Amino acid sequence: MNAPSMLRVRVTRKTVEAQDICSFELANVDGTPLPSFSAGSHIDVHLDAHGPGGLTRQYSLCNDPAESHRYLIGVLRDAASRGGSIVMHDRVHVGSELQISPPKNHFALAHHAAHHLLLAGGIGITPILCMAERLSAIGAPFELHYATRSPARTAFLERIRGAAFAPQTSFHFDDGAAAQQLDIAALLARPPGGTHLYVCGPSGFMDAVLAASRAAGWDEGHIHYEFFNADVQPRAGDGAFEVQLASSGRVIAVAADRSVLAALADAGVVVPSSCEQGVCGTCLTRVIEGTPDHRDQYLMPDEQAANDQFLPCCSRAKSARLVLDL
User: Fold this and answer.
1) What is the separation of C-alpha 78 from the centre of its chain, rounded to a whole number of angstroms?
2) Where does residue 276 rank: exposed (0-12), middle (13-18), buried (19+ CB within 10 A)?
């Protein structure tokens, strides 16, 4: 039986948007309107029926938030991924049914901003596109920079070229002339007062944008981002530690080569999780005592510094023990 919060949808259209990128249009199987969402929202797509059990991936919604009859997501087929994108491309077709979560938004627009600077790398255009269309609809000032390998790999290229905000958009192609390529450091060198920055894309692109913006002195509260993948490889020097469950006092050992999430699961303690890469926030857990070693891309720097919560799928401990609100 599905959890009451889950939605059952059917793929009503599957479209090739660029090389290795398809969009999927999803509609409620019973024909009723889908829950509303705002620009920057994503859904969890559960692929158990089409791939290995427990396979869940997050995809941003890239259609008009005013629409209630459909959700639209874009998916890059990545041969180096953990399998979700390959399942979507190879096993999910028109007529396929999927279980999804209601929309969640950890990447919302700051509507009070005087100006908005949108930066998208590759498939990271999906939430950024929705933002651009929303800002255009309400007449808010913004500019969009979209960087990809080539025009052939640029999803929604014609949709953007035909949009009302096309004059506010700059495309940057890796295989194009040097003059049109994106100079991240120059673009972010002088943070304009009242401007908010939004970035989504591959980890390397996002790391470069975030590093440049912070080096240039951008206000951390004006920087908005959303990762959908991250490097969660073990690090040299990782050691064992313990976690204690506050509710029972039970102590569980976490080996140097195991995540906290895995150690808890081995002990029969189930914490809801999804991405297992520290980007979605599903497994966020409160820390009562001890000092976490934060390795996520979900919490803001000030939230990490507070050390009162962490992501057990990827983060570890600097102290010998963490007492968790479990």
Assistant:
1) 16
2) buried
Domains recognised in the chain with CATH numbers: 7-100 (2.40.30.10), 115-225 (3.40.50.80), 241-324 (3.10.20.30)
pTM score of the predicted model: 0.78
Rounded Cα distance between 26 and 188, Å, is 37
Tokens for 24? Answer: 């999927």
Burial of 177 (0-12, 13-18, 19+ CB in 10 A): exposed
**Which residues, including other chains, have CB under 8 Å from residue 170's CB and lie 6 or more apart?**
143, 144, 145, 146, 180
The beta-carbon contacts of 210-214 under 8 Å, at least 24 apart in sequence, are 212/184, 212/185, 212/188, 213/188
From the list 157, 113, 152, the residue with the least C-alpha distance to 134 is 113
pLDDT tens, 84-112?
888 999 999 999 999 999 999 989 999 99
Is the Cα dihedral 234, 238, 242, 246 positive or negative?
A: negative
